[in-house]
Hints:
Layout: H1 21-26, H2 54-60, H3 68-80, E1 92-100, E2 103-111, E3 117-120, E4 123-126, H4 131-141, E5 143-144, H5 148-157, E6 160-161, H6 176-191, E7 203-204, E8 208-210, E9 222-229, E10 235-244, E11 252-253, E12 257-258, E13 260-263, E14 267-270, H7 271-276, E15 307-313, E16 316-321, E17 329-335, E18 345-348, E19 353-354, E20 363-371, E21 376-380, E22 384-386, E23 395-399, H8 413-422, E24 427-431, H9 432-436, E25 447-453, H10 464-475, E26 479-484, H11 487-493, H12 497-505, E27 509-513, E28 525-528, E29 541-544, E30 559-562, E31 567-572, E32 575-587, E33 594-600, E34 607-608, H13 610-625, E35 645-647, E36 654-658, E37 664-670, E38 676-683, E39 688-692, E40 699-707, E41 710-718
Helix pairs in contact: 8-13
Amino acid sequence: MDLPELRSFPTLVLPDQKLTDMRRITLLLFCLWAGSLSAQILNLPPRAKTALSGSQFVATIWSSSMSLTVREDSIYAQVLKGNVPDFYRNLVPVTSKAFIAGDTQKVTYYVAPDYFAIGCDSDYFLCPMSPMTATKIASLTGTTLPTRKMVGDIWKAAQVKMNPQPLSPGPLMSTVPYFAHHDTLVDSARKTFMPAHPLGQLVSGDKKDVIISHIIDSIANRVVIFGWYYPTGSYIQPMTDIHADVYMDYSHGLRFVQNNCWLNDTTPTTIQCIVESATLSPILSDEGTINLPWYPYWISLNTPTSFAWLRNTPTSLKLAVENDPSVTHYDVYTSTDGANYTEHLRVKKSNLVIDSLKTDNICFVRLIAYDSNAATTSLMSEMLASVPSSRNDSTLIVSGFERNIAGNTYSFTIQHGTALYNNNRYMESCTHKAITDKLVSLNNYLAVDWILGEESVADTSFDPREQNYISSYLEQGGYLFTSGSEIGYNLVQFGTAADKLFYSDYLKARYISDAPDNKSGTYYSSNVQPIASSIYMVNDTVNFDNGTHGTYNVPYPDAIAPINGASADMHYATLDTEYACIHYAGVFPSGSKIGKLVYMAYPFETIYPAPTRDTVMKDILIFFFGEKTLYTGIAESAGNDLQVNVYPNPVKDELTIVMPQPAEATVKIYNMLGQQVYTSHLDGNESTQTINMSGLTQGMYLLTVESGSARYVSRIVKE
């Protein structure tokens, strides 16, 4: 929520600051290889069998004549190749706690088991480096550096507590030979804990930590170090920024921590979001909020925020990106599941076509801008989705949820894109800025799915330019599905006269309140209206997330009502007049063609479980296009001109098909992708058949029974 709201807040208020566009988009986007909140593996490329061992790598950087730039470029090159030990990839959970507003709050995060190393399990080198290179590695791997408090909590959780082994100070302590000498001592000490404590267990005491701190924001060009714990709990190094950022010695260690984490075991968030919060920062920081939770180096380009991921050929997709004169290339990361990415492709911004993709398969993408002249880069963009195909039935997903709140992973095209794909509907997608920058035209698409999540007053649900594009699209017969919990709160309670007119005339809604029955954190389900006008199956209940089901908490879903010809579809629990979803089909103001609208007052992506989300999307698509368009291999002229009785539906195990009399017939079942999953034949001597459905996954299926030229078609729900 955003000020100037006047209402009661829960005791725990998650951070919600009015950030610049770049930071709002990027604070939650340090994740790359560790693409999901449940990830516990540093998902770098596999280590090649021919990769350098730790001692071999040390030999390549041994020379005192090698510049710091060349040495650190060599370190980063090894990371890009995945040359880190296998044990180092398995991240270890650590929990930090604080007593806040009368309750114990905690954050669980995943840390590397030891300090950063190059090489293999049998020969690895604990490698000091500058905070500049550490920042590059953190951006690449979806990690951050720890705070002072986190270093102490990691030491407490460590299964292997080593004794520090400081060497004699002097001018050589910042040289590679000194690094290697100390590394040998640490390696010998680590082996004394074997085999009771194998590699991969959490280690502390072998190095000091390079940390993030509020000092970074106040004094430029410094590295902040702390720690080097003894087994007793005392430590050698108080927090200090005495050294310049180009200084490192044998004692400096880099402990990478996965940025994605869990708040109180239920709410997905990030380390950076927590340490910036005035309320929650004590969980991870003992020095107050940390307003710049990374070293401000290397990342100097603007993060791509205006771009689209579009169909090109059956085996390729193309990017359209708003031109940034500072950018020469884009690093493109693609994924088939939104979590695990291929090794990136660096492509010139003049030729943003990605080839060799699998036809008719969903493909997710994220971008990093790159300037080859200065060797600088941006943070990672949000995620988009598309399908390479020769089909031309695209729905456009518009990603418009950029509000910086706990749980916003900027990747909700996963839920929307997958729901479309599972209903045999292909998609392209873009950021909302790509619409106003005219990279993409809504009028090129049969349907638009506009994601607004919990976008609110500070970020604006639909700004005036977006309202103009949407109004024109609907007037020309477009089909719009939009979902978000703050649309009415934004446009009506704090909107202009034009905002309110758009809300009533084009979203066809009357705003009732900011939460059903004016009770926040109370209603987390909606019930389908038991009336014929609903586009959903009668009496269904749809649940959405309270922060414990994989997306984010929706404590303030708007309560709305249909007006200007719209119809209600869902109401909140027992509140028969406070609605959660409405639809409309008709001519919009100044229009000449019939357009269609589905407006859901809570975020579609928060519906759970996934099969329910897919079914809700299916019903929306049927309202837009008719049922038969969802299935391939089914003739458009198909109709129910064959009498068949099918029961039970929904079905758990066995489905029974009964015809009026024995007849030859073919029975087929299709999944939501149009793939045939069952077929059988009645030979004319029987009128009843039982089908075992227990081996099929939950979801919606299509049953067809054909006898001669007659046909029966029905939806079947598998529980």
